[in-house]
Specification:
8 helices, 11% strand, globular, two-stranded parallel sheet, 185 residues, single chain
Amino acid sequence: MLRLFDVLLALFGLIIGLPIFLVLMVIGFFDTGSPLFRQKRVGRSQKPFTLVKFRSMRLDTASVATHLADSSAITPFGHVLRRTKLDELPQLWNVLKGEMSLVGPRPCLLSQEELITERAARGVFAARPGITGLAQVNEIDMSKPRLLAETDQQMLHNLTVAAYFHYIIQTLQGKGKGDCVSQQN
């Protein structure tokens, strides 16, 4: 049932959001020269997939977990994208393809071994990774692998249709700031 909602909502979001996507692509092109960001992430059953987002950091930024990235790498337009969560919109394509869900554990990098181990021990990889979920709306990021894996497990164990829509609504209302970025310069 949730997969049906994923497909319908992602398709709706991609169709209705097309003018926004085009504007963000143009602005992103002028901001960084490459508006889309692609990165290998760990998906369902620990299979890698390529996550797509709007680029919010300079092109020369190291491919590390967000909490390990330097905040000075975020472009001015990137700050707007992150604050409004518009950087996540291209992931609707990942949802439509079946690599992600709207609600689920945020997909981690292949190099985040501690988080992968914690999630594997709790069966979190049985589910598709998501754009939002319990950890995101409660501002639990990947800098706390054990807490994140425990929260992901709790969310998946209690995920109902009502909870699914509750997480989406909370995210659309601006709850949760996303992964923290290091403030070192």
